[in-house]
Amino acid sequence: MREEGEGYDDRRDEGWRGTRAAVHAASGGRLGAAHPRQEGPTDLRLVPPALAAWATSAVMLDAAPAWVTGTTVGCLVLAGVLMTLRVGRVGRARRVPGAMTGGRSGWPAVTAAAVLVCVAAAAVSAGLHGADLRRRPLPGLAERYATVIAEAEITSDPRLVRPRVRGPAPAPTAVLIEADVRRVETRDGATVVTRTPVLMVVDVERRRSSSSASSAGDRPSPWLALLPSTRVRVTARVVPPADGGDIAAVLRVRDPEVPEVVGEPSAAQRLAGRLRAGLREATDGLAPDARALLPGLVVGDTARITPELDEAFKETDLAHTLAVSGSNLTIILVLLVGPPGLAQRVERRGLAPRLGISLRTTALLGGALTLGFVIVCRPDPSVLRAAACGAVALLALATGRRRSLIPALATAVLLLVLYDPWLSRSYGFLLSVLATGALLTLAPRWSAALRARRVPPRLAEALAAAAAAQALCAPVVAVLSARVSLVAVPCNLLVEFAIAPATVLGFAALATAPWAMPVAKALAWCAGWPAGWIADVARTGAALPGAGVDWPGSWTGAALLALATVALLLAGRRLLRHPWWCGACGVLLLLAVVQPPPLTRVVTGWPPPGWRFAMCDVGQGDATVLAAGVGTGVVVDAGPDPVLVDRCLRTLGITRIPLVVLTHFHADHVAGLPGVLRGRQVGAIETTAYQEPVDQAEFVRREAAARGVPVTRAAAGEERRTGGLSWRVVWPPADPAVVPEGPNDASVALLVRSAGLRLLLLGDLEPPAQRALLRSPAGPLLGGVDVLKVAHHGSAYQDPGLLSRAAPRLALISAGADNTYGHPAPGTVAALRAMGAVVLSTDRDGALAVTGEGAELGVAGD
Question: 0.85 cut: is pTM over it?
Answer without folding.
Answer: no
